[in-house]
Design a protein that fits this description.
This protein is mostly helical. It has 2 helices and no strands. The protein has helices at 13-18, 27-62.
Length: 68
Amino acid sequence: MEEPDRPKPSADAANRLAGEDLGPYSQAELDERIALLEAEIARVRAHRSKAAAHRAAADALFGGKGGG
């Protein structure tokens, strides 16, 4: 269930990764990092789609407005 009043973590893993210095990484390490990040993006998208389908089913059953 969604908790809109719950604050979002400001220091989540994505924010930490975005601030990391990439200078020390080799091209091979960067390629590996890209592959891992693309796999994580696919996992998050799949979860988002599943959550959206669940929400749509709940809205259809209970007559919600589907604002998410």
